[in-house]
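Cross-check.
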Amino acid sequence: MTDERDAVTISGTDDGHEEGGVRRRSRRKRDQRPFWQELPLLVVTAAVIAALVVNFLGRPYVIPSQSMEPTLHGCAGCTGDRIYVERLSYDFGSPQQGDVVVFKAPTSSWDRDWHSTRSRNAIIGGIENFFSIFGLAAPDENDLVKRVIAVGGQTVQCCDAQGNIEIDGKRANEHYGHYTFPYQPGLPFAVKTADGLSVNPAGREFGPVRIPEGFIWAMGDNRNESLDSRGHIDDQYSGAVPISNIRGKAVFRIWPPNRIGPIH
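Predicted model, tokenized:
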């Protein structure tokens, strides 16, 4: 014989579950927004992530000249290398001899052949500056890519009897340095004149220059085609580059496909 109290209890419990399930499903349906309402949130989230990556982890750069060949391509008429430059190495450490770095021009003497690509229209220029925060436009500054030859506390000069760079009086191990012209003893790379600095690409000699702490001496691998620290010995830093101007360390070629790979 069935107990009516048990039957009522069981029936009431089932109804309660069904009723609760209906309420939960209804709540889920009300909480689920259409895609067009979710899209702005997704866009903002992606933009914030992109800004954090670009400003704290690293960003891509285009090589604009041949000053780093053959390590990096940027010759006229060819497809310039695109490289990835990471920031973390110098957030937790210092530049080392041999590193390939991107840095902002430290003095006006480095800007002689540079022109801003920003629109003269204030609104468009402002939009370009805004996009640069997220890596969608290049920063409005003269960024250069060179190799670290010497760091703070070291003395750099050229040349020894074979035309090699010396650091603290010892020959530097520079397998990456490329010269078009043979070494001519007594022929300097740059000479100070009354009209400014006169550069002779066929020359090699410079220095000695003692690098202050917090600075580096930077040169292109394509030595006869690079206007680097040697070509700015008349500025306020005697050609040295402040570490605070370094944007990061070049670690990888990301374009073109046939040159993708790490930068050593």
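Residues 4-32 form one domain. DSSP finds four helices and 14 strands in the chain. Passed to J.P. for a second look.
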